[in-house]
Write a structure and sequence with these properties.
Strands 1, 2, 3, 4, 5, 6 and 7 form a 7-stranded mixed sheet that branches. The chain is α/β, with parallel strands linked by helices. Helix 3 (84-94) packs across helix 4. The chain has helices at residues 11-19, 40-56, 84-94, 135-143, 159-164, 172-176, 180-194; strands at residues 3-6, 25-26, 62-73, 76-78, 98-110, 120-130, 165-169.
């Protein structure tokens, strides 16, 4: 049986992949996410590839999923806030405006002999509009601790994060951290190409 491995410790990506009903295990990549790359598309693709390969070299007959998500506002990449003050600044900046969320995904198949095959690398982009926010909801959200491990200091799936979002254009799950529809299609294609024994549920 071909193993499916998620190279991420994100509880959100874990929950999303579980929605597909596909058996998988988690082996978080410890790859350094700092990069000199300023282009968001290059960044998420570069990091998702690095994360997948970091784990894949330790396996055989496995498909490793690497992913990376960034929030981009006015051409600036907003990562995870380093402090509550920075989280407040990010949310105030996003208030009443729109931004883009990019997620890069890499599917790295390593065959029975431990050889890495050509990676499947793709990305999705979603446009997100925020409501105009007052200081109170920003303060309450930060007090919950939820923004601190999320790019752009918010999670669209959170109670307060959901209230912040006015509308989106694109894949909702991409904003959460993993574009499910595209992932399933690419996994299905990979399974067929290499005749893999992946347990992919039928939608």
């Amino acid at each position: 049986m071909t193993q499916l491995i998620l190279a991420s410790q994100s509880p959100r990506r874990k929950a999303l992949l579980q929605q597909l009903g596909i058996p998988f295990e988690i082996q978080p990549s410890m790859i350094d996410e700092d990069s000199l790359t300023k282009d968001p598309l290059s960044l998420v693709r570069e990091l998702s590839l690095a994360k997948a390969k970091d784990i894949a070299i330790n396996y055989s007959n496995a498909v490793v999923i690497g992913a990376d998500t960034v929030v981009v506002h006015n051409n600036d990449i907003l990562g995870k806030p380093s402090s509550e003050q920075e989280a407040a600044q990010m949310l105030a900046r996003l208030s009443g405006t729109h931004h883009h969320v990019y997620t890069g995904v890499c599917l790295q198949y390593v065959d029975r002999h431990g050889s890495l095959q050509e990676p499947v690398l793709f990305h999705e982009q979603t446009k997100v509009w925020f409501q105009a926010l007052s200081a109170y909801p920003i303060h309450q959200y930060i007090a919950s601790g939820s923004p601190m491990d999320k790019a752009g200091a918010y999670g669209i799936q959170d109670d307060w994060g959901a209230i912040f979002v006015k509308k989106i254009e694109g894949d909702y799950y991409n904003v959460v951290g993993l574009p499910l529809s595209r992932c399933y299609l690419e996994l299905s294609s990979l399974k067929e190409r290499y005749s893999l024994e992946l347990q992919l549920s039928t939608p």
